[in-house]
Amino acid sequence: MFLGIPIPSRIGEYILVSIAIIAAPGPSVLFTIARAIAWGRKVAVFTVLGNASGFFAMSLLVAVGIGPIIQSSDAIYTGVQWGGGLYLIYLGIDAIRKRSAHTSQMLEDGTSGAPSNIRVIRDGFVVGILNPKGIVFNAAVTPQFIDRGEGKVVLQLILLGAIFACFAFILDGTWGLLAGTARNWLSTNIQRIVMLRTIGGVVMIILGLLVLLQIKR
Questions:
Q1: Is 111 helix (H, G, I), strand (E, B) or coil?
Q2: Which of 111, 121, 97, 115 is closest to 198 using CA atoms?
Q3: Average pLDDT for residues 54-79, to the nearest whole number?
Q4: Helix (H, G, I), strand (E, B), or coil: what is residue 2?
Q5: Which residue from 7, 35, 97, 212 has the highest number of Cβ atoms inside 10 Å of its Cβ?
C-alpha cells in the first residue's frame, strides 16, 4: 500500500513498458529536441515539465472515466488488454514507418527568439494533455497492469499515471539536456535520430506481442 493505494503486483513490468515507450523518440521527444536545438537546455526542460504535467492531468481524467467500468466488467477488462497489446504494436509500426518524416518536421520547427518560461510550460502542457497517443495509452495499456481484486481501481490508475509522468519528465528531460548540449551534433545528422526511432519501434512491437501472449483466455 502507498498512501492507502494498493500497489499493483505488476508495477515492475509497467515501469519497463513505460521506460521503453518514453525512451523511444516520439512526437513529444522530438518536440523537446526541436526546442532544445532552437533555444537551448532551459527551454527544453520547461517544455518537458509542461508536457509531463499535461500527461498526468489527462491520466486523471481517463482514470476517473474508465476506472469504475473496468472494475465491474471482466469482458471490458479483457477487451482493454487486447487493445493495449495491439496499440503497442501499432505504436512500434508507426514509429518505424514515420521515422524520417516526423523527425525532419520537428527539427526544422522554429528558430526565432525564445518564448517566456510560462509560455513554454503552457505549450508543453497543451501538447501533453491533447496527445491522442497518451489518451489511448492511459485507456488501453495502463489498466492491464492494475490488480482489480485489490479494489480502488481509479486510485491505482492515477498512481500508474503519476509514475509514467515522473519517468517522462526524467527521460524526456534527459533528451532535452543532451539535445541542448549537442545542438550541432543532432541538427546536422537527422539519421542518428532516425536510427533511435527504428530501434524504439522494434522494442514496442515486441512488448505488444508479449502483452498479447499474457492475456488469460
A1: coil
A2: 97
A3: 78
A4: strand
A5: 35
Write down the pLDDT at residue 202. Answer: 80
Cell of 207: 512488448
Asked if pLDDT for residue 144 goes beyond 60, the answer is: yes
CA distance 28 to 106: 10
Q: Which of 92, 110, 86, 85 is nearest to 30 (CA)?
A: 110
Coil, helix or strand for 208? helix
Higher pLDDT residue, 194 or 138? 138
- Taking the C-alpha atoms of residue 20 and residue 197, their distance in angstroms, rounded to an integer, is 11
Note the pLDDT of residue 151: 78
162: three-class secondary structure by DSSP: helix
The answer to whether the Cα torsion of 25, 29, 30, 34 is positive or negative is: negative
How large is the average pLDDT for residues 175-201? 70
- Element containing residue 120 per DSSP (H, E): helix 117-129
3-state percent breakdown (helix, strand, coil) of the chain, nearest 5: 80, 0, 20
- The Cα 214–Cα 217 span in angstroms is 9
> Strands, E, within the chain: which ranges?
none
Which residue's C-alpha cell is 513505460?
A: 18
Residue 79 and residue 164: Cα distance in Å, rounded? 22
d(CA 189, CA 108): 12
Segment 37-64, tens digit of pLDDT: 667 788 889 989 998 998 899 889 888 8
